[in-house]
Design a protein that fits this description.
The chain has 664 residues and is an alpha+beta fold. The protein has 5 domains: 58 residues, Helix Hairpins; 237 residues, D-amino Acid Aminotransferase, Chain A, domain 1 (2-Layer Sandwich), CATH 3.30.470; 84 residues, OB fold (Dihydrolipoamide Acetyltransferase, E2P), CATH 2.40.50; 152 residues, DNA polymerase, domain 1; 70 residues, 3-Layer(aba) Sandwich (Rossmann fold). Helices cover 37% and strands 22% of the residues. The strands form 8 sheets. Strands 14, 15, 16, 18, 19, 21 and 22 form a 7-stranded antiparallel beta sheet that branches. β21 and β22 form a beta hairpin. The longest helix has 20 residues. Bound molecules: 2-(butylsulfanyl)adenosine (IVH). 2-(butylsulfanyl)adenosine binds next to β3, β8 and β13.
Length: 664
């Protein structure tokens, strides 16, 4: 192949940058995901093949570079200020009065959401992102550049024409939905959940492995500036417009307002929208629009006199802890739940709150009978924030973690390095019920109409113990259950029947293997193409699949080797469950042949080559053995090629692979 020129690579990067900008900043994608992936993989390949053409600010850096040892300190050129808070119209009025005294009546302010995220500063020199740092104590923060680079909406290069030094300040946010998913996953894995999206965003940015940070869907809004060289904008609103011109993401809810009453109306209006926003906000930031006016007012200590945070009243209330119950989840994790004296918070009656795990209960110093502060944030489960120890009477009782599973009585353990307690009984009925709910769920086997209620009823009537029992349900069984009419039982049986025809990805996800979430299941299904290949894959092979590390691979192996699981899968298949790989076989010309791909192929990515082989009936594996039929060899192939030569296994170039497929 001809050597790509610097120019070709740069063109590709320029295209990808534009697509990133359109998608993540403007929210207006102009190409399909497939086309994007194709170009991205092409660039990855060129950079892999031609290390001399690599660039630390290439769009490929968004997938995360090598892990760090620690974060270096970073001293901000200019102090990163904090904001004073006000909580009502009167306090806000005091700010307006001061501004009027200094600037007269005719001044404007910007009103922006106060994002509840992690403050960062991005330093662009000649348009290139050179440092991203946390606020720290305002003077010195931490250099988190490698992690911030993975945020899709943070440009690595500015667009258009820009000053030679631009320091942008803004907020990193984790979307509420991603926060919910992340915590679900952490709970499943026995990890401590994050208390709120802000902590989750901070935790994501403070991970030493940028590839881990890259997996979290973080977003960024620019809201203010540090130092900007030779800059001529005169207003905050102008600054935000320039940010947008330079390709930075600014918040569309920002307004330019003329009076206190307009601010009040904005504040109230935004509070109505608050719940529906994809990210958390905790108030409105009001800034004098005129930068000259800002300079005139100056700062007091570490906060500006020209800006203020008008905060929403916390969605909090005080109530009493009546008791603690313990819930057993699908993987046996036992979660404490606070049972509260019902209390109204933001129009919703709250009866229960999450306590997460023993560490959190201890950190709070919580006892039964305590008065507690309960906070409700967006649509997340309410949280116990703190204990009002002043209100103690001495009658409060210590919270005891059960040593036996509340559902089955089996011993409970707390594994080393885990925050969670777990029930040790694999056949625990509570775990089974939760696993079944997962198995039939929308994103798993998708048995419509078979909701959580049904599972509980079936379990109560001892009709279902295992996944496969779902497929043994008969009409008379269902009719026996009170109030079940003919039509609804027919409908349910149909839905059960229909679910047998499913995809491999859904099936793998439905099995509920610890650490295998929906997206990992899909990657595994795409990679292996058949249930048999997946279940037979070695730990080494599994680890060649994206998102699969040692921990996940071990968990899959453990699951696949467990006789009980093998039996259960067999029973499911015997009952007609038929998981199909998403790619239909185009031919079966490669059937019975196993391929190993090594090194970088000239045009196909490894996944593409695997998919191609599988779609012609072949199998792919991550390691070379006597059973390997061919090793497909690309540039910089290593030990696998050596092993193939040693075992006398034929090798193929990409061209030869394509020719082989054509000829079959
Ligand atoms: S302007 C001095 N605008 O709130 C100006 N800050 O207490 C401060 N914050 O950590 C920055 N939303 O990161 C500004 N729209 C917004 C903001 C905002 C959230 C954060 C900021 C800082 C904290 C100040």
């Amino acid at each position: 192949m001809a050597r790509p020129t610097q120019e070709q690579v740069e063109n590709l990067r320029e295209k990808l940058r534009l697509y990133d900008y359109q998608y993540h900043v403007l929210d207006q994608p102009s190409v399909s995901d497939q086309e994007y992936d194709r170009l991205f993989n092409e660039l990855l390949r060129l950079e892999a093949e031609h290390p001399e053409l690599r660039d630390a600010l290439s769009p490929t850096q968004k997938i995360g570079g090598s892990p760090l040892e620690k974060f270096e300190k970073y001293r901000h050129r200019q102090l990163m200020l904090g904001l004073q808070n006000v909580y009502n119209e009167e306090e806000l009025g005091e700010y307006f009065e001061r501004w009027q005294q200094t600037l007269g009546d005719a001044f404007k302010v910007t009103a922006e959401p106060k994002f509840d995220g992690l403050a960062v500063e991005l330093v662009y020199e000649k348009g290139r992102l050179v440092v991203a740092s946390t606020r720290g104590d305002g003077e010195t923060g931490e250099n988190v550049t490698e992690n911030v680079k993975t945020i899709r909406s943070v440009p690595l290069l500015l667009r258009g024409s820009f000053p030679s030094l631009v320091e942008v300040r803004g907020e990193i946010l984790l979307m509420k939905e991603d926060f919910r998913k992340l915590n679900e996953e952490r709970l499943r894995n026995g990890e401590a959940p994050f208390a709120n999206p802000r902590n989750a965003a901070a935790g994501s940015i403070r991970q030493l492995d940028p590839r881990e940070a890259a997996k979290r869907s973080l977003d960024f809004f620019a809201h203010s500036a540090g130092q900007i060289d030779s800059y001529t904008a005169t207003t905050q609103s102008g600054l935000l417009k320039d940010f947008a011109k330079w390709g930075l993401k600014t918040n569309p809810l920002t307004r330019l307002l003329k009076s206190r009453s307009e601010v009040q109306a904005y504040f109230e209006d935004l509070e109505k929208k608050r719940e529906g926003l994809a990210y958390e906000i905790d108030g409105v930031v009001i800034k004098l629009d005129s930068l000259a006016g800002q300079r005139e007012l100056g700062n007091v200590a570490r906060s500006p006199r020209w800006a203020v945070a008008y905060k929403y009243k916390a969605q909090e209330a005080n109530t009493q802890l009546l008791g603690v119950t313990f819930q057993v989840g699908r993987t046996g994790v036992i979660t404490p739940v606070a049972e509260l004296e019902p209390v109204e918070i933001g129009g919703v009656t709250v009866r229960r709150a999450g306590l997460h795990n023993e560490d959190q209960v201890q950190a709070l110093g919580l006892k039964v009978g305590d008065w507690v502060v309960v906070k409700r944030a967006g649509d997340v489960i309410p949280d116990v924030q703190s204990v009002l120890t002043d209100k103690r009477t001495g009658k409060e009782k210590k919270i005891r973690f059960p040593s036996k599973c509340p559902a089955c009585g089996a011993p409970v353990v707390r594994l080393e390095g885990e925050a969670a307690h777990r029930c040790t009984n694999r056949a625990c009925p509570a775990q089974m019920i939760e696993s079944l709910k997962h198995f039939v769920g929308k994103r798993a086997m998708n048995i419509e109409g078979l909701g959580k209620k049904w599972i509980e009823i079936f379990a109560e009537h001892k009709l279902i113990h295992h996944f496969s029992d779902v497929y043994d349900l008969k009409k008379p069984d269902l009719r026996k259950i009170e109030r079940q009419g003919e039509r609804s039982t027919d409908k349910l049986l149909h839905a059960i029947e229909r679910s047998k025809d499913t995809t491999l990805a859904r099936f793998i996800f439905a099995l509920g293997i610890p650490f295998v979430g929906e997206s990992t299941a899909k990657l595994l299904a795409d990679h292996y193409g058949s249930l048999e290949a997946f279940l037979g894959a070695s730990s080494e092979s599994l680890q060649t699949v994206e998102e699969v590390g040692e921990k996940v691979a071990e968990s899959i192996r453990k699951f696949a080797e467990e006789p009980h699981n093998q039996k259960e899968i067999r029973r499911l298949l015997e009952r007609g469950v038929h998981p199909k790989a998403s790619q239909r076989n185009l031919s079966d010309g490669l059937s019975g042949k196993t391929f190993v791909i090594t090194g970088t192929l000239p045009t196909l990515s490894r996944d593409e080559a695997s998919a191609l082989i599988q779609s012609h009936g072949g199998k792919t594996s991550g390691s070379v053995s006597k059973k390997t039929s061919y090793v497909v060899v690309g540039e910089a192939a290593g030990s696998k090629l050596e092993k193939a030569t040693a075992l006398g296994i034929p090798t193929l170039t990409e061209d030869a692979l394509l020719a082989l497929i054509k000829s079959t």
